[in-house]
Amino acid sequence: MKKVLFIFFLYASVQSYSQNYTPAKLDSITSIYKNKGEYEKVFQYNIAALRYYKEQDNPEGEALANINIANALSTFDEHQKSLHYLDEAGKKLKLVNNNGLNARLCNEIARNYAFLGLYSQANIQLNKSIEYLKHSPNTEENRNSLFFVYIWKWSNFEDLKLPDSINAMRKKGLKDFPNEPKIYVRIAEQFLSKKQHLDSVEYYLNKASVLAVEKNSSLHTYGAIATRRGNLYTLKKDYPKALEYYQESLPIYLKINRGADIIDTYKKIYQTYLALNDIPKANEYLAKYTQLNDSIHSGERKAVASVVNNLAIEQEKERKNLYIMIVAFAGIAVGSIVTIFMIRKRNKRRDRLFEEQKKIIGEKIMEADQLKKKVDTSINELSKMATSNDPFFISKFKEMYPEFHEKLISQYPELTNHDIKFIAYLRLNLTNKEIGQCGNVTVRAVETKKYRLKKKLELPSDMDLGTWVLEL
């Protein structure tokens, strides 16, 4: 509720500015505010600039202001609103030719997707950004955009558990941006996650600290360094020292109102107090963590539903185009056969032409088969992930059936993650035995789960659960 009132206040408090908002000035002042962690001023300043650009009928300026506003909203964990402004920026960029701004647009979309756990979709946007940057001048702003791509792809690869890709991004980062402190924070994080080379962690964090001062880095960079120092001392079981660094990072995250980092820090402080056997303080931070986590999680579910719906529309268009191509190729093949038959009947001397046409038909049929296999392969791969109890099964399922998943969680919000996974097995038409293998339970347990799920969904007793799932 506080966040809603805060955003409303920002909207209401924006006043018209009389000065001109050149893109360079807009970016410069926005960067100053961001480095200080004053994101509410970023929001106010760019809202005023957006009004100015609309009055001047300047689509390029509107796109830039919309992107900056979206960045601030994403920091506030207002991802649905952020994506709305990015959609507006995309509409304006269709009217101008600016590869640098298109790259920034893709980066901000990717940032929202990554915060929502849509890591693969985020990387698709980051790859688009790279393509735009290849055709952009080598300005400082475009260099910053490329650095953004490196850092976020690196982070996404870590969440997707792709070690080869992680190492590739690390090498690129060190080669192209050797003086960026966040590169060394990310390397330290790698060692921390593996609980290895703790002396190296200290070295890289010290290097990041020095560079952060030299480059006058953003406030968030200092928070990130302090958090990793806290993690380091937690691994060393020096809990008082760890608590000191977590308490150093928390005010930074609170100042910039960065919800995901605030939640994470509340959780770390709670765990540290627990290790110190200070139960009252542990419970205090557990309550803060729970309250904020529930609030942000609710907003994220709405944002994910919105993103998934848009992706579903795009995928549905792709599927329709694919099937149209299959039908077209089949029509060409049949038409070719009929034509060849008539030619051969009229003139047997044209056997050579017949052979050539037959070869074309074979190629067309092969292409049609390949297109069909492309549709089926993903489904087969998903079934294998389910039966092998792959931890990424549910993420892949959301990608394959976004419309189904969105409809399920919107109509039945009371379903647990376990319920959703079980329904996903049914959507793939797995047998009770196969479902049992997925959860390492008996067939009888699967039947019991079906019975309880039917009651939870309030389905008629004569309704088959599998049929209901397939028809949803």
What report would you give on this structure?
With 472 residues, the chain is mainly α. The protein contains 22 helices and no strands. Among the domains are: 179-277, Tetratricopeptide repeat domain (Serine Threonine Protein Phosphatase 5, Tetratricopeptide repeat), CATH 1.25.40; 300-379; 389-471, Rossmann fold, CATH 3.40.50.2300. The chain has helices spanning 2-13, 23-35, 39-56, 59-75, 79-93, 99-115, 119-134, 140-159, 163-176, 181-194, 198-214, 219-235, 239-256, 259-275, 279-346, 351-387, 393-400, 402-411, 417-427, 432-439, 443-457, 465-471. Belongs to the Rap family. One of its GO terms (biological process) is regulation of DNA-templated transcription. It is found in: Cytoplasm. InterPro entries: Bac_ResReg_Asp_Phosphatase (IPR051476), Sig_transdc_resp-reg_C-effctor (IPR016032), TPR-like_helical_dom_sf (IPR011990), WH-like_DNA-bd_sf (IPR036388).
Beta-strand content? under 5%
Radius of gyration: 27 Å
Number of strands: 0
**Can you count the helices?**
22
Which percent range fits the helix content?
Answer: over 70%
* Secondary-structure class: mainly alpha
Low-confidence stretches: 1-18, 299-303
Q: Tell me the major beta sheet.
A: none
- For CATH, the homologous superfamily of the domain at 179-277 is named as Tetratricopeptide repeat domain
Overall shape: it is globular
User: Whole-number average pLDDT?
Assistant: 80
* CATH class bucket of the domain at 179-277: Mainly Alpha
CATH third-level topology of the domain at 179-277: Serine Threonine Protein Phosphatase 5, Tetratricopeptide repeat
